[in-house]
Amino acid sequence: MEKKDINVLEQMQNMTIDLNSKVMLEKAEKDGVETMYKRKLGYKVQCGFGLQGVCCRNCGMGPCRISAKTPRGLCGADEHTIVGRNFARMVAAGTAAHSDHARDITHTLALTCPGGDYQVKEPQKLIEFAKFMDVDPEGKDIYELAHEVAEVCLMEFGKPFGVSKLLKRAPKVRQELWNKLGIEPRAIDREIATVMHSTHIGCTADLDSLIHMSMRCSMADGWAGSMIGTMISDILFGTPKPVHTEANLNVLAGNNVNIILHGHEPTLSEMIVAASELPEMQELAKEVGADGITLSGICCTGNELTMRHGVKIAGDFHQQELAIITGAVEAMIVDVQCIFPALPELSSHYHTKFITTSPKARITGATHMEFHEDTAMEDAKTIVREAIMNFKNRDASKVLVPDLKSEGMVGYAEEAIVGQLNNVVNTQIDEMDTLKPLVDVLASGVIRGVVGVVGCNNAKTPSNYNHLTIIKELIKNDFLVVTTGCGASAACKNGLMLKENAPKYAGKGLATVCELVDIPPVIHLGSCVDNSRILNVCSLVANACDMDISDLPVAGCAPEWMSEKAVAIGTYVVSSGIDTFLGVMPPVTGSSRAVELLCGGLKDQVGACFYVNEDPVELAKMIMDDIESKRPAFETLYQERILNKRLAEVTAE
Ligand code: XCC
Ligand code: SF4
């Protein structure tokens, strides 16, 4: 390579801390193929207007861009209006993505039947959920009940009256606050439509109002769409239980047919897992000269599959291209969200079949094999067969699978977290007693707090660097970390989901808890839709402590967020009373008032707000300081509301 090329390679390699990724970038250069890392080099300067959120093209008179010379758009919209509208639209898009995913899962529940491709795996969970949704399970066949629950859930998307039924999962005080503020989401689709309508030219031109409707819309994601998505996924495919897995590109197997599942919804991927396990598929793989079939996942599909089946994690968002560059992938099968449009062209340099399956995410140049839930198994078999038959086209001279992989325990649903703690301490079923161990370690300060470190990779930061730096800082200082999405993949790739590594990375308090309770210092909660599990656990703990969520020593953090879904998530987490720390600045800095409101003013309304710092060490410190500052009040409340009560009970006996 010439010196110039080496420079380019070095620059690209500096954009990730993953050692496998660095190897693959070198191969990409040798193979003459382009990746996100290369394209990023071409973007020396990104558009300043876009970065600040002050570019508006919401009507045909624009685009209008706010600057000192042009302080208003043609219609007179100022920077606050434009930033607010752009922010609200990001939230609406994110909410749409998560909720449409949930809608598909719910349709799948409506298709369940005895002996069918999709069945009810968790009847008890269905019955409980039915009761919660005001559907009487009494005397009903489980499938009759499933269909009824599906219909009630589908109504949550478009019902004409009332607010989300799922809000009642939150502590009472929080529900009252949402009611007072007017941010209880009504029907999910309605909140998305309201934002799109109100941000049309000539509607809302008031920043407070735009942020207010952003919060209400985001709540339709967290407390409705995502909550339904998670619940029904568990009912259909089983509640995740802790399971062993492996992560990073080395999970791609030498002489196996490698199939990568990438995207988000478990509907397709679950069926691919089932199809690939069929004896006829295993035999076919042998016939074409392979030893077997290896499935692995990328992005949230990876998380969904790993937590229910231990399917290995091939990589995160930033490794989707690098996986193909290994030359060892027979097929990459995708559904929706976070799929680079670059993949078909990239795949054409290798033997990899790049297969799109959803009419919602067609990509020019891909092999489109549409997947329909009502012919699920047949469709899945066709797709798997296509992958197997492609094995003979693998070109050994183009294969390079990098050396590293890591192991971890994944799949801690709410039940697993509570259950695991309960195993050690007691076995009572009363809610407070069940949560007592978790509450006790929090209240005593053995664990200083719990932080959800979640979200994507962003080319604005070296891949995985912020995630790992922050997670390591937190656990070193006795903060338990729960994680989802690509942040979870980063943690797993680096051994942080192994209990054995707790003494190495965790502080004394946390390491002791890990040992006693048999958990890793970083807990895998699933995909991004599963952030609703974090809301659930927070609600349970708040209820058990007779407090609001905002009283708890907890925080949210998205160190490398990039998607609009992440903006929706951050906003509902804040609206739920949890301070949220971002490692990448959202495009709002063009409006001083938006920054003041999002990063401060919201605190007076919902008891939480955003904090941003692009230095991960500083951000970690901000998180810990924030939680520590909450602890004295939390401990006092705990003493008043729980300990004194317990004492009174004991005395009464
Ligand atoms: Fe996408 Fe969900 Fe972000 Fe990863 S974490 S880059 S949204 S796959 Ni959800
Ligand atoms: Fe310009 Fe107003 Fe149209 Fe936006 S809505 S493009 S600011 S005229």
UniProtKB/TrEMBL annotation:
**Does the UniProt entry include the keyword Oxidoreductase?**
yes
List the protein's name.
Carbon monoxide dehydrogenase
Q: Which reaction does it catalyse?
A: CO + 2 oxidized [2Fe-2S]-[ferredoxin] + H2O = 2 reduced [2Fe-2S]-[ferredoxin] + CO2 + 2 H(+)
* Enzyme Commission (EC) number: 1.2.7.4
* Keywords attached to this entry: 4Fe-4S, Iron, Iron-sulfur, Metal-binding, Nickel, Oxidoreductase
Q: Does the keyword Metal-binding apply?
A: yes
One GO MF term on file is: anaerobic carbon-monoxide dehydrogenase activity
Species name: Terrisporobacter glycolicus ATCC 14880 = DSM 1288
Q: Which cofactor does it need?
A: [4Fe-4S] cluster
- Source organism superkingdom: Bacteria
